[in-house]
From TrEMBL:
The protein's role, per its UniProt record: Catalyzes two sequential steps in the biosynthesis of coenzyme A. In the first step cysteine is conjugated to 4'-phosphopantothenate to form 4-phosphopantothenoylcysteine. In the second step the latter compound is decarboxylated to form 4'-phosphopantotheine.
Origin species: Alsobacter soli
NCBIfam families on file: coaBC_dfp (TIGR00521)
Residue intervals passing through the bilayer: none
EC number, as in UniProt: 4.1.1.36, 6.3.2.5
Active site: C158
Domain DNA/pantothenate metabolism flavoprotein C-terminal intervals: 188-402
Positions of CTP binding: D280, K290, P307, D308, I309, L310, F327, K341, K345
GO molecular function: FMN binding; metal ion binding; phosphopantothenate--cysteine ligase activity; phosphopantothenoylcysteine decarboxylase activity
Gene3D superfamilies on file: CoaB-like, Flavin prenyltransferase-like
Keyword Ligase applies: yes
Reactions the enzyme catalyzes: N-[(R)-4-phosphopantothenoyl]-L-cysteine + H(+) = (R)-4'-phosphopantetheine + CO2; (R)-4'-phosphopantothenate + L-cysteine + CTP = N-[(R)-4-phosphopantothenoyl]-L-cysteine + CMP + diphosphate + H(+)
Protein name: Coenzyme A biosynthesis bifunctional protein CoaBC
Gene that this polypeptide is encoded by: coaBC
Length: 410
C-alpha cells in the first residue's frame, strides 16, 4: 500500500525496540512518504538523532526548548505539518503521558498539540503491558480515537515471553497506509460495523485462566472483509496471536465483562457480528495469589455465568444495531442448536459451524484455516460449502451489505 506524498511525524520512544524504528523509517520512505523524527531523551539511549536524520533525509528533533526550533513554535508546526503521527515504540511511559495529557518534553507536547490522527505501536515488557494502569491508558487512548497496531507476541529482550513486542515495521507501515488511504468506496461505505473475535480469558489466579481454542482467524477475517467493502469497522478482540487487520480500529480485551463493556461503549452501529468465542463461565472469586498444591486435592472453583453479550445487544431497546449476527460453534446437531440459539438470543442471523474434531491431529475449525457454515434466520437455513475462512468472511460481508441495503435478512 502506497504512502506517496504523505508526511509522517515519527515519534521514537525509549525502549529496546527503538532500533526497529530505523527500519520503520525505511518502510515509510519505500512507500513514498516523507518522514520527520522526534526522539525522546530515553530513545537517544538506543538510537542516535544522526541515524534517524540520515535515514529520513530530514532533521531529527529532540529538544522542546531548542532556541532555533522553538523560535517559530516548532512543536506546533511539527505536529500540524504532518498527515499522521506515529509513535513507535510507544512505551508504557509515553502511553501514560498521552492518556493523561502530559506535555513535559517535545514528543508529548507535539502529541498534545496535534490536530491529526495518531497511530501507536506499543512495545514493552509483558508484565507492563498487562498491568491495569496500561490497560486503562490504552482504553483511554482508543476512546480518544488513537489507532493501535500490535503488540505482537514473542520472546522479549528481558527473556520473558508474551505480548509486548513492537509490531513489524511493514505491519506498522501498512496500518499507516490504511489510515491515510482514500476511504474505500464499496457496498458498506458509510456503514459502521462492529465485530468481536477470538477467545476470552477468565482468570483463576494471576497465572491461570479459563479459555478456549479460538484463534480469532474468522473474526479478524470478517473485520477485514467489511473494511474492504468500505465500512468503518471496530474489532473488539480477545487475546490472539494474529496480526490486526489493516484499516480497522482494534480494541483489545481479555474477559467477557471487558468485551461487553467495549461493545456497549461503541454503540450504535449498523451491523454487529459476534464471532468471539466468549467463555460461558468465570471463577466467582479468582485467587489474588497463585493457587498452590498442598496435598489436599484440587481446589474447588465456584463458577458463575458470564454476561450474554449477543443477547444483551440483540435485545437493546435503544441503539440496537440494524443487523445483529451471532455465531454458534457446535460439535453436534449444528443446525438444530443454531435455530434454538437464534430464538433464545433474539438476533437476526446465526452463523452455525461444526467445530468437532475428526480425530486427526490439528483437526477442527478452531485454529484452522477453513470453515463450513450455515446461515440460520427466521426465513430458513442457507448452507455454504467448505471454504477458506477469508472466503467465508467476504461472502458474509457481502451478504451483510445486501441486507442493510434491502432491509431483508436472508
Amino acid at each position: 500500500m502506497t504512502l506517496a506524498g504523505k508526511r509522517i511525524l515519527l515519534i521514537i520512544g525509549g525502549g529496546v525496540a527503538a532500533y526497529r524504528s530505523l527500519e520503520l523509517v525505511r518502510a515509510f520512505r519505500k512507500r513514498g512518504a516523507s518522514v520527520r523524527c522526534i526522539l525522546t531523551k530515553a530513545a537517544e539511549q538506543f538510537v542516535t538523532p544522526l541515524a534517524a536524520a540520515s535515514l529520513s533525509g530530514d532533521k531529527a528533533y529532540t529538544d522542546l526548548f531548542s532556541l532555533t526550533d522553538e523560535a517559530e513554535m516548532g512543536h506546533i508546526e511539527l505536529s500540524r505539518d504532518a498527515d499522521l503521527l506515529v509513535v513507535a515504540p510507544a512505551t508504557a511511559d509515553l502511553m501514560a503521558k498521552m492518556a493523561n495529557g502530559l506535555a513535559n518534553d517535545l514528543a508529548s507536547t507535539a502529541l498534545l498539540a496535534t490536530d491529526k490522527r495518531v497511530l501507536i505501536a506499543p512495545a514493552m515488557n509483558v508484565r507492563m503491558w498487562e498491568h491495569p494502569a496500561t490497560k486503562r491508558n490504552l482504553a483511554t487512548l482508543q476512546a480518544d480515537g488513537v489507532a493501535v497496531v500490535g503488540p505482537d507476541e514473542g520472546e522479549m529482550a528481558c527473556g520473558e515471553f508474551g505480548p509486548g513486542r513492537m509490531a513489524q515495521p511493514d505491519a506498522i507501515a501498512d496500518a499507516a497506509a490504511a489510515m491515510l488511504g482514500e476511504h474505500k468506496v464499496g457496498p458498506l461505505s458509510g456503514k459502521r460495523v462492529l465485530v468481536t473475535s477470538g477467545p476470552t480469558h477468565e482468570p483463576i489466579d494471576p497465572v491461570r485462566y479459563i479459555a478456549n481454542r479460538s484463534s480469532g482467524k474468522q473474526g479478524h477475517a470478517i473485520a477485514r472483509a467489511a473494511a474492504e467493502l468500505g465500512a468503518e469497522v471496530t474489532l473488539v478482540s480477545g487475546p490472539v496471536s494474529i496480526p490486526d487487520p489493516p484499516g480497522v480500529t482494534v480494541v483489545r480485551v481479555e474477559t467477557a465483562r471487558e468485551m461487553l463493556a467495549a461493545v456497549e461503549a461503541r454503540m450504535p452501529v449498523d451491523a454487529a457480528v459476534f464471532c468471539a468465542a466468549v467463555a460461558d463461565w468465570r471463577v466467582a472469586q479468582a485467587g489474588e495469589e497463585k493457587l498452590k498444591k498442598d496435598g489436599s486435592g484440587p481446589p474447588s472453583l465456584g463458577l458463575v455465568e458470564n454476561p450474554d453479550i449477543l443477547a444483551t445487544i440483540a435485545r437493546r431497546k435503544e441503539g440496537r444495531p440494524i443487523l445483529v449476527v451471532g455465531f454458534a460453534a457446535e460439535t453436534e446437531k449444528v443446525v438444530e442448536h443454531a435455530k434454538a440459539k437464534l430464538a433464545r438470543k433474539g438476533c437476526d442471523w446465526i452463523v452455525a459451524n461444526d467445530v468437532s474434531h475428526t480425530g486427526e491431529p490439528g483437526s477442527g475449525v478452531m485454529g484452522g484455516d477453513r470453515n463450513t457454515v450455515a446461515i440460520v434466520s427466521a426465513q430458513g437455513v442457507e448452507s455454504w460449502p467448505d471454504m477458506d475462512k477469508s472466503d467465508v468472511a467476504r461472502k458474509l460481508a457481502e451478504r451483510i451489505a445486501t441486507a442493510l441495503k434491502d432491509k431483508q435478512w436472508v
